[in-house]
Amino acid sequence: MAKDEDVKLVGSWTSPFVMRPRIALNIKSVHYEFIQETFGSKSPLLLQSNPVHKKIPVLIHAGKPIAESSIIVEYIDEVWSSAPSILPSDPYDRALARFWASVVDEKFFTPMKASVGAEGEAKKGLMNQAVEAIGLLEEAFGTLSRGKAFFGGDHVGFVDIAFGSFLGWIRVAEISNGMKLIDAVKTPGLDGWAQRFSAHDAVKDLLPDTAKLLEFSKVLAAKLKEKH
Predict the structure, then answer these.
(1) Does residue 199 lie within any of the structural domains?
(2) Residue range of the domain that includes 207
(3) Measured between alpha carbons, how far is 62 from 38 in angstroms, rounded to an integer?
(4) pLDDT tens track for 118-133
(5) Looking at the 3D structure of the chain, how many domains does it have?
(6) Which of 36, 84, 105, 172 has its CA 20 to 30 A from that of 90?
(7) pLDDT tens sequence across 105-120
């Protein structure tokens, strides 16, 4: 087994997908080197490590690259197998966790991403899709948590990491659109969960500053408008 010193993560502080493996590494108490990519460019290391998608994050463990955030999180859970586990041990519960993590990406992230740079009715429609997805996740939290603190029960698990990595961007979206996506009235389960997740030792130092992320979002939106 390679030592922790052989662990590197290529990414950016703005990316929720990069935040996922960072949380997982923290949960497992793995020391790693974080290699920050520059926005708008792709380093030779990134292109060499992920020649197919050419995207962050990439975990490099003992010189071997692993790409795609969810795959990296599962890899971390398997390689550093000491407790707490990120994925449930029960096959059915594990399948459910993977399913709801995919719902986060497909039903929530997809319209949220498309809404950046969108305007008028198009933006409103996309935000409504994101709100519907949050409603589904509110119901899922009630089922998966079984009355405990996190989607993963007593511990931060796979779905917590998948959805919680977006909390910084959710706050930015709430400010930008003048609407609450998660609140104590409409989504009481997620509201309490978000506070607990944000305060967790594996998470609290990784959450991006809202003001800085808001400024970055404006730059990103401007870039997207230029492309159109």
Answers:
(1) yes
(2) 91-221
(3) 24
(4) 889 999 999 999 999 9
(5) 2
(6) 105
(7) 999 999 998 888 788 9
